[in-house]
Amino acid sequence: MSRRKQIYEGKAKILYEGPEPGTLVQYFKDDATAFNAQKKAVLDGKGVLNNRISEFVMLRLEEIGIPTHFIKRLNMREQLIKKVEIIPLEVICRNVAAGTMAKRLGLDEGTKLPRSVVEFCLKRDDLGDPLVAEEHIHTFGWATHAEVDEMITMTLRINDYLRGMFGGIGINLIDFKIEFGRLDVTMENGSVAHQVILADEISPDSCRLWDRETDRKMDKDRFRRDMGGVTEAYTEVATRLGILKEANNVHAPKLSVVSNDD
Ligand code: C5P
């Protein structure tokens, strides 16, 4: 690890310089944080599970035509990704009121929304990632009108697909957060354009996932709300997706993976 140049360390991931120009290695840590890192813990095996789940989701999304930063998984904790300029916005899509929306608008958690809602938050830890309006995005130049339109279109398509994918394994997708990046693309005439592509990760750290039969939480709210059984729940998500062979191996060294190429 120390041989590679570290580009960035976030709360749950580290980015290293990749083997080729324009690539990075994304390393998934076991660290869990909540409430802007006021609450912290190390959850044995979480990084391995999120690496696998995010790989699975990104590959499925590529199949339906969503461009993503994912190139390939390298090992249990690392994936090779395209280097992008991250757009400084968290894009949240909600199907059911929960979390900050339930609190902000005084809704009962679990209230089904009449339609899916897309929200933007500014990626600023020091400000607690505040909710922003599209007017703010344009006024302060965080993204262009075209980029905002592309992000909304892709987010709703991702939502439709993921609702079906999780629905098929008995899980309701309550909400999720995604991030986008700008990829430099050289055009035929030699000019360079930016393509907006999906970046970061999609995992139980960044989604709310409730069991369809019981409403049991299978996501990071188990950590945020001290409910326990966090890696067990993530393991169950991976198992239902067909990524893991068994539901009872939650620790990284013992994880039983379907493809044994690590
Ligand atoms: O906390 P809130 O209700 O706004 O979260 C909405 C969704 O976005 C949840 O699925 C949560 O896990 C995710 N999220 C995230 N990272 C953040 C904020 C929210 O992954 N910094």
UniProtKB/TrEMBL annotation:
Pfam family of the protein (one): SAICAR_synt
Enzyme class (EC, first level): ligase
Key word Cytoplasm present: no
Catalytic activity entry: 5-amino-1-(5-phospho-D-ribosyl)imidazole-4-carboxylate + L-aspartate + ATP = (2S)-2-[5-amino-1-(5-phospho-beta-D-ribosyl)imidazole-4-carboxamido]succinate + ADP + phosphate + 2 H(+)
Record keyword Ribonucleoprotein present: no
GO molecular function, one term: ATP binding
InterPro entries given in the database record: SAICAR_synt/ADE2_N, SAICAR_synt_PurC, SAICAR_synth, SAICAR_synthetase, SAICAR_synthetase_CS
GO cellular component, one term: cytosol
Entry EC number(s): 6.3.2.6
Keywords assigned by UniProt, alphabetized: ATP-binding, Ligase, Nucleotide-binding, Purine biosynthesis
Entry's Gene Ontology BP terms: 'de novo' IMP biosynthetic process; cobalamin biosynthetic process
Span of domain SAICAR synthetase/ADE2 N-terminal: 6-240
Pathway field: Purine metabolism; IMP biosynthesis via de novo pathway; 5-amino-1-(5-phospho-D-ribosyl)imidazole-4-carboxamide from 5-amino-1-(5-phospho-D-ribosyl)imidazole-4-carboxylate: step 1/2
Family: Belongs to the SAICAR synthetase family.
Name recorded for this polypeptide: Phosphoribosylaminoimidazole-succinocarboxamide synthase
UniProt source species: Litorimonas cladophorae
Gene assigned in the entry: purC1
